[in-house]
Amino acid sequence: KVEDYLKEAGMEVELFEGVEPDPSVETVMKGAEAMRKFQPDWIVAMGGGSPIDAAKAMWIFYEYPDFTFEQAVVPFGLPELRQKAKFVAIPSTSGTATEVTAFSVITNYTEKIKYPLADFNITPDIAIVDPELAQTMPAKLVAHTGMDALTHAIEAYTASLRSNFSDPLAIKAIEMVNENLVKSFEGDKTARNLMHEAQCLAGMAFSNALLGIVHSMAHKVGAVFHIPHGCANAIFLPYVIKYNRKVCEDRYADIARALKLEGNTDAELTDSLIKLINEFNDDLSIPHSMKEYGVEEADFKSNVKFIAHNAILDACTGSSPREIDEETMEKLFECTYYGTDVNF
Hints:
CATH architecture of the largest domain: Up-down Bundle
CATH topology of the largest domain: Dehydroquinate synthase-like, alpha domain
Strand content: 5-15%
Radius of gyration: 19 Å
Helix content: 55-70%
Number of strands: 5
Distance between the termini: 53 Å
Number of helices: 13
Number of domains: 2
Strand order of the largest sheet: 1-2-5
CATH superfamily of the largest domain: Dehydroquinate synthase-like - alpha domain
């Protein structure tokens, strides 16, 4: 339909399809080559996070053919885009909010690493956030993308670069997810519309405040064990809150108060927030640990040092409210695998 609308408007259109979930470097380079042949003035990316993220990365290599992927992964180090084309994003899933963010996540399958490309240059020029496009999402995708949106908002509210501008967006997104995610999962159309708006607000929050180690961990686990990104976020979020609470329990308590959860102290309110997230995972049929998800113990043990090392290097780790080293990251991964308590 989008292709037809553009042609009816008198535009010359070339379609690039076949972007896989967790798009690869190879797909990005193939798409960039197609762009160089067609020479578009506008790039219109439609779909979930994967095709839009892939198109953002293709855009870089379309404008700068000699640029390398190794150069592109340097945070906020891209040359000026829009020399050849501008960018429109039209999301059809309610989670990544890539239509309003400065990020694109691309996987190097040879290295088994997911790289978040981060630069305000790749923030789309136009975002068309039409809730109607999200109405056909299957329930599992609603669950995973919804928990991705919740994680975006909670991490933005506690990130080291949070501000008075990002906080209201994050809190409003959290309130909307709390009210609508389970209803959306159960098929409520109004709730699904509101989730599409909530995820966009969460994206606006984290594109300004940045994220934290839930995302660092999810990126690296996704590349090795292929756990869907939103599902990994949902599993890791309660554990990371327990880790971070030593330095920002007051922020988690703020969230709990906004949601009218039980508790008289910051500690009690944070406990209530953790309980709520675990209840979400129950309601959405999301497991509480990587072991419960189905990751084999031998696979986990043979890869944990590798994923812990790469998680420390992830662009999202720098904005975590609590610092973490490689050894502690490994311990945290072990908690998320076995479902054990975080007491360090």
